[in-house]
Amino acid sequence: MEEKLISEKDVRNAWLRYYMFCEVGISYERLQALSFCYSLIPIFKKIYPDKEDMKAALQRHLVFYNTEAVFGSPINGIVIALEEQKANGEPIEDDAITGLKTGLMGPLAGVGDSIDWATLKPIIFALGASLSASGNAIGAFVLLLLPIIQIAIGTKLSVYGYKMGRASIREILSSGRIKELINGASTLGLFMMGALSSNYVALSSPLKFTFGKGNEPFVVQNIIDSIVPGLLPLLAVLGIYWWLNKKNQNMVAIMLIILAISLIGAITGIL
Which of 12, 132, 198, 235 gets the most CB atoms within 10 Å of its CB? Predict the structure, then answer.
């Protein structure tokens, strides 16, 4: 009979250790492998009482590993389940465990980067920045929503991976829910960025011309606003977006160029 040595609490705690230290001790050779091993030490102490078995298990997970920590959390649960089965005598090859990690880390990283870092983080940070800019102290604490949401999702998915095993990833990736979630999150992110850009990107032209004495000055900004209100901020945002989408862009150079254009525009009175 298979002996259950690992509880759901153990799985959650193991993932939390990985979440806290996944960016610590990174190298080009192994990336997150050291933090992954560190997260499994309490698990291995329970299932491998023999030190040589534990040493072999740790060496197994020192191979290159890199994924998105939150939505890659099912891998942590699956690996714990496989290691527990191996410790109970099931014929699970080392290559099967490491191969599963290698095969899943890419697809789940793509899912996590699309939802977590490309959508959730910009929305929360933009909300916090807008509240802080208006003098609301809550804006500083809004940023805490990101780790709270990440921990809630990560602990849930890691336990799900432990319970369901390898079939859990097939179910997650093959179902259409992930695609719907990514599309919905991307659409929400675009709406939020558009709304924030229109409110917080301040760009106007002070140019004005006077034709003949006694006539009202011809204010360029009034003409632009009468055509499309907020046209200059919109063009600025679209231009920067187009620029960022071009390949091999240097972000520091882009920021310096934007700063230089802003200074020149302010000094000359164009912007």
Answer: 12
208 pairs with which residues across the strands? 219
pLDDT tens for each residue of 37-87: 999 999 999 999 999 999 999 999 999 999 999 999 999 999 998 899 888
Answer yes or no: are the C-beta atoms of 196 and 232 closer than 8 Å: no
CA 48 vs. chain centroid, Å, equals: 34
Is the CB of residue 18 less than 8 Å from the CB of residue 10?
Answer: no
d(CA 255, CA 263): 12
Q: What amino acid is encoded at 243 in this protein?
A: W
Specify whether the CB–CB gap between 121 and 114 falls below 8 A: no
- The 3-state DSSP class for residue 144 equals coil
State pLDDT tens for residues 218-244. 777 787 778 877 788 888 888 887 887
Q: How many CB atoms lie within 10 A of CB 128?
A: 20
Rounded Cα distance between 259 and 262, Å, is: 5
Q: Which residues of 207-217 are buried (b: 16+ CB within 10 A; e: fewer)?
A: eeeeeeeeeee
Task: Give the distance from CA 87 to its chain's centroid.
Answer: 34
- 206: number of Cβ within 10 Å: 12
Q: What are the tens digits of pLDDT across the range 151-185? A: 999 999 999 889 877 555 556 556 565 566 556 65
Instruction: Out of 24-33, 83-92, 167-176, 249-258, pick the least confident.
Output: 167-176
Quote the Cα angle for 238-244-249, to 5°.
155
209's enclosing H/E stretch is: strand 208-209
Element (H, E) at 9: helix 8-21
Give CA–CA dist 157/198, Å, rounded: 37
